[in-house]
Amino acid sequence: MSRFDHLDIGLVVRGHGRHYIVESPDGLRRVCHPRGKKSDCVVGDLVRWAPSGSDEGVVEAVEPRRNLLFRQDEWKTKSFAANVDQLLILVGVEPVFSETQLCRALIAAEAAGISTTIALNKIDLPGTAAARERLAPYRAMELPMMELALTADREGSAALLTPWLAGKKTFVMGPSGTGKSTLINLLIPDAKAQVGEISVALNSGRHTTTTTQWYWVDAERQTALIDSPGFQEFGVKQVEPMQLPLLMPDLRKHAGNCRFYNCTHQHEPGCGVRDAVEAGLISASRYRIYGEILAELTTKRW
Predict the structure, then answer these.
(1) Which of 194, 231, 239, 284 is the most exposed place for a label (fewest CB within 10 A)?
(2) What is the rounded distance in angstroms from the CA atom of residue 290 to the CA atom of residue 100?
(3) Angle at 145 between CA 255 and CA 182, to 5 degrees
(4) Where residue 253 falls among pLDDT bands split at 50, 70, 90?
């Protein structure tokens, strides 16, 4: 039993700097600040908080997390979302999606134990056949997939997404131009209002497009979408290099055929993974991305 168990529990629905919006079980939201200098809350965290002033609070403790996602740029890796049930990776027929971003998201989700579905949007456009071909290796891995036309067929897209999302906390990843804003506005008519209320509370209007945001889809607050605009890549620095191929289903399938138990699948003789690449059982682009991420994980930065 924790010494904070007597305190109220709340859900972090947004953070900016050292300010967090914490939602009580009754739906009331208030600005909370962390105790002391350390600030390690993320959206999706359940926290124990105590009142501080008339309408604010202090975060005293973070409850144990089921999972944690990281974002990464050239300089640092930072956690940004917790306690996610599933990941929706939105890719578009156009612009052409980055397979590196897609791979990193899948690896990060696999490492965190989060199930993932890939959604191909804009299937009303002429390049659909080419986009499906680019996704063929992921279909071969039996990853769950769906196809959408969020703008051209709003009703059909909503009918497909709504039951899949129901009762779950879903993180939505989608590079600029793939239709993520369209998806959120389609499913959450008051999305702008939810952001607006929080921005006023945080006095952070100019940051509304760069902060991870928790949206309730339904009035009962059982179904949620989590959106984190403005970041390009999931962080994978938390992955041990030898675990990397085990987090990629196509490589994992053939890694047991290697001569050496500690094979890196880069240069060793008798490598089942490289044999599978040569036989066309693993796509060349997936293998190339594996090599790039492995180099990233094994290169020390001084």
Answers:
(1) 284
(2) 9
(3) 130
(4) very high
